[in-house]
Specification:
The chain has about 300 residues and is of the alpha/beta class. The protein has one domain (about 5-295): Rossmann fold, CATH 3.40.50.720. It is built from 9 helices and 11 strands. The strands form 3 sheets. It has a 7-stranded parallel beta sheet with strand order 3-2-1-4-5-6-11, sandwiched between helices. Strands 7-10 form a two-stranded antiparallel ribbon. Helix 2 links the parallel strand 2 (about 30-35) and strand 3 (about 55-60). The chain starts with a strand and ends with a helix.
Length: about 300
């Protein structure tokens, strides 16, 4: 019975991971959320599931003690093993999402956003891997997947001339480096550690009521790509989103803004995860690269 832990699965891409994985009665799915009571979409999914194979664990990634308690629950359910860890938790806070290095009110505000983003996007990943690693070592698949972002890739930021989203992009870049460090550490143990980009994803259906769903397309040489869904207040950020899209179109004339559904994105991601082997260890795979590989029959 394959076992999966989805870190951050109360809505959006994480919730879709839980939905698709739990649809197979052979799978055991563990999902962490910051607050069980407010995770209404996940609660509905659990109630509607006929397989009783979803285990909800309350743990914030910034709280390593809570994660250890969650891991103990996994041990009780599986006997001490875990096959696949999917780290989906990330900070995409609306008020600061589009701010550049010179856009904060003052240095204190800049420091606060960078530090909070680092705690969630970087240390949260470290805490998750360190906590579940003993279980993963006893699992059969030995796969660790970071849901990454092209916004954290230097080539994209330069080619798209993207000066904003600084806290998010900087900490995502750091998370990609952490992924590479784990890949180096664990490769000889038979692990595959990688970062996967989900593509442009419309998560409106499970977004909080005050937010709309916007995603920023990313490029790598040519348009292909994508970053994590970024929830932004429609009234505050509409102009900024349109301006960012205009910049992308200037850099890449054939730019297309075509968000996909969470179902489509996660279907691609899960096919990639199933096909991962040692050749992908330590790599960042864009959405376009994943789709191309699947079209060629690799996946």
């Amino acid at each position: 019975m394959p076992s999966y832990a989805v870190i951050g699965g109360s809505r959006g891409i994480g919730l879709e991971f839980v939905r698709q994985l739990s649809s197979n009665p052979e799978n055991t799915v563990f999902v962490t959320v910051r607050n069980r009571n407010s995770s209404t979409y996940l609660a509905e999914l659990v109630a509607q599931s006929g397989h009783q194979n979803i285990h909800v664990l309350e743990a914030d990634v910034v709280d390593h003690r809570a994660l250890k308690a969650a891991a103990e629950e996994v041990v009780k359910a599986t006997g001490g093993s875990l096959d696949v860890l999917i780290n989906n938790a990330a900070r995409t806070e609306a008020h600061n999402a589009f701010k550049g290095l010179l856009d904060y009110e003052d240095e204190d505000a800049s420091d606060a956003e960078f530090l909070e983003s680092f705690k969630i996007n970087v240390l949260g990943f470290v805490h998750s891997v360190n906590t579940f690693l003993p279980l993963l070592r006893k699992g059969s698949a030995k796969k660790i997947v970071l849901i990454g972002s092209q916004g954290g890739e230097r080539d994209f930021v330069w080619e798209a001339r993207m000066p904003n989203m600084t806290a998010y992009s900087t900490t995502k870049a750091a998370a990609h480096m952490v992924m590479a460090k784990y890949a180096v550490l664990l490769e000889k143990e038979g692990f595959v550690v990688t970062s996967l980009c989900p593509g442009i994803v419309d998560v409106t259906t499970t977004a909080s009521s005050e937010c709309g769903s916007f995603t920023l397309a990313h490029i790598r040489g040519r348009i292909e790509l994508i970053a994590n869904a970024v929830l932004l207040d429609k009234q505050i950020w509409k102009k900024e989103v349109e301006a960012q899209q205009a910049d992308f179109r200037k850099a890449v004339p054939d730019f297309k803004f075509e968000p996909q559904s969470p179902e489509g994105s996660v279907t691609t991601l899960l096919r990639t995860i199933a096909a991962l082997d040692s050749s992908e260890c330590g790599k960042f795979l864009s959405h376009g690269e994943q789709v191309a590989a699947q079209n060629q029959g690799k996946s």
